[in-house]
Backbone:
């Protein structure tokens, strides 16, 4: 299966601390994306990193990609209570055109005020 | 930005009935739409890929006769859960992709999801 695997499955930290989530996958990818999902709601696209990129930033988010290890990490700096959500990595395998995404199992992040 | 809507947001139905869920791309034409299913506290699983004007492609293990997909226009795809049972209760999310050149990645824009509860 190409499904990504996130760890940890759940993470609870204090507001203001940094949160790091990891994603591992098994096959080659075209790009990897991170999404956030608030409880029972739709997905919010956070960031996309292509297979030829190693690091990307967006505001308080920093994503790294190591294709040799088939892993990615999402770092949220200076966390806020509003960051409480589930975070998923999603893999696009490529092959051209429109293929569905393969999602990881997700990390449930709780930011304690 | 690109917006995808779903209707209804939530639906409760009796076992044995059929339920139709709509997915619309509001400000762009979507040659391809995707349907995902998410069980509580689990990840999203791709169910099928819907291409405008052609038959949907279903993922392994997804019953095509149970989950009917129609993509009749460039802005609308529908998922009909036929003869629904309690185990079909789930969160169904669609996404839509605008046209792209062959071989190029096309961003998927996700709808807000439809929560289906089958009694």
Residues:
């Amino acid at each position: 299966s190409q499904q990504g695997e996130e760890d940890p499955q759940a993470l609870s930290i204090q507001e203001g601390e940094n949160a790091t989530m990891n994603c591992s996958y098994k096959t080659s990818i075209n790009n990897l994306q991170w999404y956030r999902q608030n409880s029972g709601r739709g997905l919010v696209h956070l960031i996309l990193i292509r297979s030829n990129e190693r690091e990307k930033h967006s505001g308080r988010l920093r994503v790294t990609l190591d294709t040799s290890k088939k892993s990615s990490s999402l770092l949220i700096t200076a966390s806020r209570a509003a960051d409480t959500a589930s975070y998923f990595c999603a893999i696009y395998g490529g092959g051209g055109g429109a293929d569905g995404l393969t999602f990881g199992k997700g990390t449930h992040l709780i930011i304690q005020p | 930005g690109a917006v995808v809507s779903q209707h209804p947001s939530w639906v409760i139905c009796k076992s044995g009935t059929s339920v139709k869920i709509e997915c619309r791309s509001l400000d762009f034409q979507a040659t391809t739409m995707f349907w995902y299913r998410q069980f509580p506290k689990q990840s999203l699983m791709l169910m099928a890929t819907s291409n405008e004007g052609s038959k949907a492609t279903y993922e392994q293990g997804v019953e095509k006769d149970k989950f009917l997909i129609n993509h009749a226009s460039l802005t609308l795809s529908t998922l009909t859960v036929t003869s629904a049972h309690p185990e079909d209760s789930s969160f169904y999310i669609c996404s839509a992709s605008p046209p792209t050149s062959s071989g190029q990645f096309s961003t998927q824009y996700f709808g807000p999801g439809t929560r289906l509860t089958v009694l």
Notes: The interface with chain B takes residues 3, 30-31, 35, 40-43, 45, 48, 88, 90, 92, 94, 96-106 of chain A (CB under 8 Å). The two ends of chain A are 38 Å apart (CA to CA). Chain A has no helices and eleven strands.
